[in-house]
Specification:
Number of strands: 46
CATH superfamily of one domain: Immunoglobulins
CATH architecture of one domain: Sandwich
Number of helices: 1
Largest sheet: 5 strands, mixed
Strand content: over 45%
């Protein structure tokens, strides 16, 4: 058979099999996000998701064929996100998926690759919601040494020393004239300009760590129980005493729940919200992992503090499966101290850790290629608070909350300006005194506001609410505050929506919190943000189905 005949036969068989799949297994679908048909350099980015709401056992695997019968990549689960090197020429590639019910589906993508020097941009789509997934590759006269994304003139959103770039950028609604730029080892610079209009839209799912992992749906900031009037969906793993913390990746594909000595990873079915254990899960963590955990906003690393011994470490995230691999970051907390909180700047460039016994704060520049921690100048910083409970870092400023005279002493918020090298300088007027007792501080990723959860003086059994404090962008001082009374709803954890339009909270309904008999039920809720960031009640409280409030929540796009 001639080469042309074999090619015709392959295409005919492919079309026939596609028609059979579409007819017999219409519910199994493959959605290719990138690449779209077109011309690129020889390093091409692929992202695809597979879904079948009728198959309760989920997706088995996804494979990319770079040519007939030539499998370039095969990954277990419902998601693939990777770069593939293709020689110059025309390629009829195929993305194929298998579910665990015996069904197969595929989608073909025609691409042309060239040796022309320059930058290829693969995502985002024309009107994404936040966070915006930006992927690009570059080739030059010499080897590419670095790539960078500018979201506006001289606004560096992300830089990596590589010829490939895959990151998530949290942006407010609006139009951005972006530039993907690359440098090669011979001093040449390559650029590709592209325009992105970020559409409105809230996150889709809320996860609560309350022993298990409880899931709620979100639409336009409104939290709902998909199983109402029954308890919401709950997922478990062999987690010892149960899950105490949770984080979700900015791509909306993975969620991680932290137990006493494991990290349980789940893949998210983007169509139904159902969770499936990712390959290799649960991942072993060092003995006595804590609830001190944070997600890299760029989607590449998970940060975890643990005791016995006391360390801050990070794990690299496989962008296709979500699997965790120990990364290069490791910091030994001095003997006699213990971790209290960890947080990152909005662009993920720096991570900060606060400790308890010695009231110290440590800053690190994170290497985006391997996750290594590079101490910032001035480490460690002494925090005047007796207990520096939470660290909240944003684009320009960092805040920590704590008390000045003991566990139930006078509350304070200490503010710092973040230097270009990650060093910290106290802002004018710091510390700031919020109304009533304040705890669990969160800063808006755009740097507009900080939010704290509050209660009345004493043992914090009354006077519950949410406080919004406006940030003066010129110097980082806190200018004014507004408070919302939440009645008997004692909220204790808070996170912000990636759109910057909503915040989500969890806690317990505290009508009988003085004696905890019967145990107060766990709850979640949401607030719409008005003006500079004032919280307006939107939904909730919704019952989690567990006694007492969740110890952590996370939201997923």
């Amino acid at each position: 058979m001639s080469r042309i005949s074999r090619k015709v036969a392959y295409i005919s068989a492919l079309l026939a099999s596609t028609l059979v799949v579409a007819t017999a297994h219409a519910k199994l679908t493959v959605h290719v996000v990138a690449p779209t048909p077109g011309s690129f350099g020889t390093t091409v980015f692929y992202e695809a998701n597979a879904q079948n709401p009728d198959c309760a056992n989920g997706i088995h695997a996804i494979r990319i064929y770079s040519a007939p019968h030539l499998a370039a990549v095969t990954v277990p689960g419902n998601h693939v996100e990777t770069f593939i090197n293709l020689p110059p020429g025309s390629h009829n590639t195929v993305v194929q998926a298998w579910d665990n019910c015996g069904n197969v589906a595929k989608q073909s993508v025609a691409v042309t690759t060239t040796k022309v020097n320059g930058v290829s941009v693969f995502t985002p789509s024309a009107q994404p919601t936040s966070p915006v997934h930006v992927t690009a590759s570059a080739q030059g006269a010499c080897a590419i040494t670095a790539m960078r994304i500018y979201t506006a003139p001289r606004v560096n959103a992300y830089t990596i020393n590589s010829n490939k770039l895959d990151t998530f950028i949290t942006l407010r609604q609006g139009t951005y004239n972006m530039v993907a730029q690359a440098w090669d080892g011979c001093g040449n610079v390559y650029k590709r300009a592209f325009s992105v209009t970020v559409a409105p839209g809230s996150d889709k799912y809320l996860f609560a760590a309350d022993g298990g992992l409880t899931e709620f749906f979100i639409h336009d900031g409104v939290v709902t129980n998909p199983n109402a009037p029954n308890p919401p969906p709950k997922y478990t793993a062999n987690a010892g005493n149960g899950f105490t913390a949770v984080v979700a990746d900015p791509g909306g594909n993975f969620v991680y729940a932290i137990g006493s000595n494991i990290i349980a990873g789940f893949q998210i079915d983007r169509a139904t919200g159902k969770l499936f254990p990712m390959p290799g899960s649960p991942f072993s963590a060092v003995t006595n992992a804590t609830r001190i955990v944070a997600m890299d906003p760029n989607g590449h690393f998970l940060y975890l503090a643990h005791v016995n011994p006391t360390f801050l470490v990070d794990y690299a995230i496989d962008r296709s499966t979500g699997a965790l691999i120990k990364a290069a970051g490791s910091f030994a907390i001095p003997r006699g101290d213990f971790p209290l909180s960890v947080g990152t700047t909005s662009n993920g460039e720096f991570a900060y850790l606060t400790t308890g016994s010695l009231s110290k704060m440590y800053g690190f520049k994170v290497n985006p290629s391997n996750g290594a921690f590079i101490p910032v100048p001035g480490n460690p910083y002494s925090v005047p608070a007796i207990f520096a409970v939470t660290v909240a870092a944003g684009p320009k400023y960092l805040y920590v909350d704590g008390t000045t005279t003991g566990l139930f002493g006078v509350a304070g918020i200490w503010g710092y300006q973040i230097g270009a090298d990650g060093s910290l300088t106290a802002v004018p007027g710091s510390p700031f005194t919020p109304p009533n007792e304040a705890f669990e501080i969160v800063q808006d990723w755009a740097g507009r506001s900080v939010w704290t959860l509050m209660c009345g003086a004493g043992p914090c059994l009354q006077g519950f609410g949410v406080t919004s404090l406006t940030i003066d962008k010129s110097d980082g001082s806190v200018e004014s505050s507004t408070a919302v009374d939440t009645g008997n709803s004692q909220y204790s954890t808070i996170v912000e929506d990636h759109s910057g339009q909503y915040i989500y909270v969890s806690g317990q309904e505290c009508g009988a919190c003085r004696d905890f008999e019967p145990p107060p039920p766990g709850i979640v809720g949401s607030f719409r943000l008005s003006g500079p960031g004032n919280a307006v009640p939107l939904s909730g409280p919704l019952l989690t189905g567990e006694d007492f409030g969740p110890s952590g929540i996370a939201v997923s796009p």
